[in-house]
Structure formats: structure tokens, C-alpha cells
Specification:
By secondary structure, the protein is an alpha+beta fold. Helix 2 packs antiparallel against helix 3. The longest helix has 36 residues. It is elongated, with a radius of gyration of 44 Å. The chain starts with a helix and ends with a helix.
Length: 387
């Protein structure tokens, strides 16, 4: 009986505590929601700027790669030993500069032997011609037989053929001797010198002695969509097109060149057409194999509608911007961006001249949000801190 009484008391205590908690919680909610609910939220600080019109280049932009106009893989054409290396790693070279000298003593000896053989056969030919002349005079006076005269002429003709063969053999040796002095056929910059003096080389070995890349001038290759091809060709017919190349992360001005090549076919796999810009590269800012931001300017649009690129947001339906309305609320509006140039977006549809668009602080905004717009400048940091 005592246990039943204790259980009843425990249940009564729990029910009383629950009722008290609900009453206290309801009172707290009433106090917290009552006055605040009737008070409007403060405006959100944002940075906004006006939609303007200005001359803007019509430019096709893409990621490009720096390409050499000519690249020579230097290998030996004969077997031999390197006697001297005339260049160092990364050296600038001119066409005709000697890169390597091989041990040529053996072939030089062969050249001297061939020259001696040529001289001997030359002397024998001169003697045979004199003998043929004498036999001709005797034969004309019937002092000797025609057979002797024919033999003398045949001997002279045979020695003439031998002399031509000796000359050809000597020329061949001279060609072989030229292979022992390895030169560069182009101006450019040498890469790593793979073999040093004392190493043996073989004809057309897999080992590359050095690679020479032409860097002045140099190409920048990139691709643009095929639907831009007609505009590109039309612009080329009117004037020479300027190409710019900017090294990512560089604060230096972009390199300027000219469009030098359009591929003769569209890549059906990607739907793009390959282009190449030619750059003098006098300051060596462009390096073979380097990725760059490339662009070709087709023309200058004198009255384009532009906004900062930071104002453009990407949503589920595409690009949109937050437009500041006269009552200081914002509207999320879909826009169509034609292109971007120099950090600005060219608007094809969706905005009018003079409208204010938010360029910083968009993260907290929704349709109808109240904002405190501020012009770009030192106030931008305050708005950016709240985004």
C-alpha cells in the first residue's frame, strides 16, 4: 500500500512539472515574438552600379597554348665519339651554330686517301689522253694499226670514268665528314644537353642530343566555336585581326600579335575551329607549352550595354542579376549575356540603360529584399563583409 501511495505522488509531481514548463515556455514565446514581429528588418548593405553604354570590343576568348613554329630534335647521323660540346643548357643559338663536334680522324684519313687516288687517276688520264693523241696521228699516216689506236682511246675513256667515280667517292666522304660537325638549322633556344664530351653516339639513336625550339616569333594556338567562323572570316576580309595573350596570374600587360592561321576544317568532335596567333615574343614572356588566356578582337562595338561581370549570377534557369528598384528593394531578373570583355559583361537582353544592379553582397538577397545600395569604392568592403 505504501508503494502505491509513493507511485501516485510521483505521477502527480511529473504532471505538475510538465504543466508549469508549458506555461513558462508559452510566456517566453509571447514576449519574444510580440514586439519584434511588428518591427521591419534593417536593409541589407550592398554595392550597386548603373548599367551603362560604352565602346566595347567584340572579342572571341579562349584558353590557348604557346606553340613553337619550328622544333628540331638534334641527333647524330653517324657513329662516333663526342669530342666537344659547344653549347650549354638553355642557350640561345643561331642557324648554323656548331652544337657538337665528333671525332673525325678516321674519316679525315679516308678523305686524304680518296684525294690521293683521285690525283693518281687524274695523272693516268692525262697520260692516256696523250697516248691516244699520238696513236691517232700515227693511225692517220698508217704508221700504226687502227686496233692500237682504239685501245688507246678506250683506255683514256675508262680512266675518265674512273676519275668521275673517284670524284664521287671523295664528295661522299666530304658529306660524311660534315656529319661529324653537328649544327643547328634554325634560330632558337636549346633545351637540356643530354650527352657531354666523351660519350659515344650512334646513327639515329633513340637518345636526343638536344632539342632546339624556335621562340622568336612564336605561335599561340586556341579554338573558338564554329558558329563564330563566319564573323571571323568577315572581319579578316576587312582588316588584320589583333590577337592578345595574357599569362594567368601575371600583372604585366598582355602580349599583342596578329591572327596568322585558321584551320582548314572544323573539328567535328568538339564543334570548334583552331586558330593561331603570331607573336614576336621579343621579351620572352611566352614559353612553349604554356597555357595562356587568348583572345582575338573582331571589331569595336561603339554603344554596347555593359555591367560589371561580378553582377552576373548563375541560377537554375541561367544567368540573372539583382536589380535595385526605386523603392530600394531588389528583383532577381533573368538576363542574356552576349559576351565578356575586360571584366565587363555585354548584356544582350534583360536590362535597360541606367538601371542599378548589385555587384557585391548578393549572398543574402532574395526577391523583394530591402537593401541599402552604396556605390563602388571604399564602402564596398562593408557590403562584402555581410555577403
Amino acid at each position: 500500500m505504501k508503494r502505491i501511495l509513493i507511485s501516485v505522488i510521483f505521477v502527480i509531481v511529473l504532471v505538475s512539472a510538465g504543466a508549469l514548463y508549458q506555461r513558462v515556455d508559452l510566456s517566453a514565446q509571447t514576449k519574444s515574438t510580440g514586439p519584434v514581429a511588428g518591427r521591419p528588418l534593417p536593409p541589407i548593405p550592398v554595392v550597386a552600379t548603373a548599367v551603362i553604354r560604352k565602346p566595347t570590343p567584340v572579342r572571341l576568348e579562349a584558353i590557348g597554348t604557346v606553340q613553337t613554329i619550328a622544333s628540331v630534335v638534334v641527333k647524330s647521323r653517324i657513329d662516333g665519339q663526342i669530342v666537344k660540346v659547344h653549347i650549354r643548357d638553355g642557350q640561345e643559338v643561331k642557324a648554323g651554330d656548331v652544337l657538337f663536334t665528333l671525332d673525325s680522324r678516321s674519316v679525315e684519313a679516308q678523305q686524304r686517301q680518296a684525294e690521293a687516288t683521285l690525283a693518281k687517276d687524274q695523272a693516268m688520264l692525262e697520260n692516256a689522253k696523250r697516248e691516244a693523241g699520238r696513236q691517232g696521228e700515227l693511225a692517220s699516216k698508217n704508221y700504226t694499226s687502227a686496233a692500237v689506236f682504239d685501245t688507246a682511246r678506250t683506255s683514256a675513256a675508262s680512266l675518265e670514268a674512273t676519275l668521275r667515280a673517284d670524284t664521287a667517292a671523295l664528295d661522299n666522304i666530304k658529306v660524311q665528314l660534315s656529319y661529324y660537325t653537328i649544327t643547328t638549322p634554325i634560330d632558337g633556344r636549346a633545351g637540356v644537353v643530354a650527352l657531354k664530351a666523351g660519350n659515344n653516339v650512334k646513327a639515329n639513336d633513340t637518345i636526343t642530343l638536344v632539342t632546339v625550339n624556335q621562340v622568336h616569333p612564336i605561335y599561340v594556338g586556341f579554338s573558338v566555336p564554329q558558329d563564330r567562323l563566319a564573323a571571323l572570316r568577315e572581319a579578316m576580309a576587312d582588316h588584320e585581326l589583333e590577337v592578345v595573350a595574357q599569362v594567368p596570374g601575371s600583372n604585366l600587360p598582355p602580349e599583342t600579335g596578329k591572327l596568322a592561321f585558321i584551320d582548314n576544317a572544323v573539328d567535328s568532335a568538339t564543334g570548334t575551329i583552331a586558330l593561331k596567333g603570331l607573336f614576336t615574343n621579343d621579351k620572352d614572356r611566352l614559353w612553349p607549352g604554356q597555357f595562356v588566356n587568348a583572345g582575338v578582337t573582331l571589331r569595336l562595338e561603339p554603344n554596347a550595354l555593359v555591367i560589371p561581370m561580378q553582377a552576373v549570377q548563375v541560377g537554375q534557369k541561367g544567368d540573372f542579376v539583382f536589380v535595385v528598384k526605386p523603392d530600394k528593394t531588389v528583383e532577381a531578373r533573368d538576363v542574356r549575356i552576349d559576351r565578356s570583355a575586360n571584366g565587363e559583361a555585354v548584356v544582350a537582353k534583360g536590362l535597360d540603360l541606367g538601371e542599378q544592379v548589385v555587384v557585391d553582397g548578393q549572398l543574402r538577397l532574395t526577391n523583394g529584399s530591402r537593401v541599402d545600395p552604396r556605390p563602388p569604392g571604399k564602402d564596398a568592403s562593408a557590403a562584402g563583409a555581410t555577403s
